[in-house]
Amino acid sequence: MQPPTSAIVGLSKSLFRSPGHIVLWISLSLQAPMFAQSSSAEKESWPQFRGNPALTGVAKSTLPSQLKVQWTFEAGEAIESSAAISDGTVYVGSQAGELLAIDLRSGRLRWKYKASEAIGESSPCVSNGIVYIGDLSGVFHAVDVQTGKALWTFKTASEIKSSPVVVGDRVLIGSYDESLYCLMARTGTEVWRFRINGPVHCTVGVAGDIAYISGCDEVFRAIRISDGKEVFQVSSEAYTGASPALQGTHAYFGTFSNEVLGVSLEKKQVVWRYENKQRQFPFYSSAALAQGRVILGGRDKQVHCLDAISGKAIWTFATQAKVDSSAAVSGSRVYIGSNDGRFYVLDIEKGAKLWEFEAGAPLSASPAIGEGRVVIGSQDGRLYCFG
Length: 387
Description:
Blueprint: H1 5-15, H2 19-41, E1 69-74, E2 84-86, E3 89-93, E4 98-103, E5 109-114, E6 125-127, E7 130-134, E8 139-144, E9 150-155, E10 165-167, E11 170-175, E12 179-184, E13 190-195, E14 205-207, E15 210-214, E16 219-224, E17 230-235, E18 245-247, E19 250-254, E20 260-264, E21 269-274, E22 288-290, E23 293-297, E24 302-307, E25 313-318, E26 328-330, E27 333-337, E28 342-347, E29 353-358, E30 368-370, E31 373-377, E32 382-386
Antiparallel strand pairs: 1-32, 2-3, 3-4, 4-5, 6-7, 7-8, 8-9, 10-11, 11-12, 12-13, 14-15, 15-16, 16-17, 18-19, 19-20, 20-21, 22-23, 23-24, 24-25, 26-27, 27-28, 28-29, 30-31, 31-32
């Protein structure tokens, strides 16, 4: 809490009684902005899909043990895009073809930006005063976070469902034209493009100078960001819609062949495969990685928690519909939506349900956790904020 103005005035008069006090006053005055900047820098954001370039789905921010709805926002059309949270603002795309900037505390609209067409699963990425997103006409947009005005656009040859990732002065984005693009983040100038043998649906996972693609062409690839050259590839033997989550020397992702794969980046091979033998359904949800566990939803209507080393099941949690939403983790809790219209909070240790919220419409988007709040959109166009 800041002191009232009268108290500051009184303090200033007392400090100015001697030259020494003047020096002290100047010292305190110089320190105050530094404290403010430090506080601002410590805000716990969720600036992109899955929270970070490694796509681990783990939040820096903590949440209350008991969640309450803080606000809802009516976007007008379905929200498949997962939100980004940065500097007190929520950014999310909608099927109405709009990128929305919403105040995190109040739920009030700050601005809306009209894309070329509907925004599907492409989720915003916020970096250095710019928010990036792709739309279903294949246009990639860079928008000023303050004004909501376009800074530049880049046209690909097909729809964009991938989410952007910023690495240094570059931004990476995949397209259904079967290419991964590397663009200059400030200008949109193409640096390179890498072509695969199918749509680039996933968001790339990044570790160091390497971008990893779990491709729709049944190949997991490592591509050098500096020059766009392939470093290695591993056959996944399956069409893949999920994005690769990276931790240490391993990558993890689910496939449409009803498996979850653990890939060694050192050995350049699949080291384990998991499948639910009782229910053979695809995995579309991207994995969260926390506490040595791989956590993801399945189209078998369950949330799965696997051991990251062995790939063995630790627990499963049953919902009433497929789970395409990707889990977010904060502390010892897992947050995930389901197409049964419920938002679940689960205990990471045993998978026990701690809380649920009935949204009444499918939740295929993934939760974003930042600055003490969790945000998720629904298929009926409502954006929910809990805290």
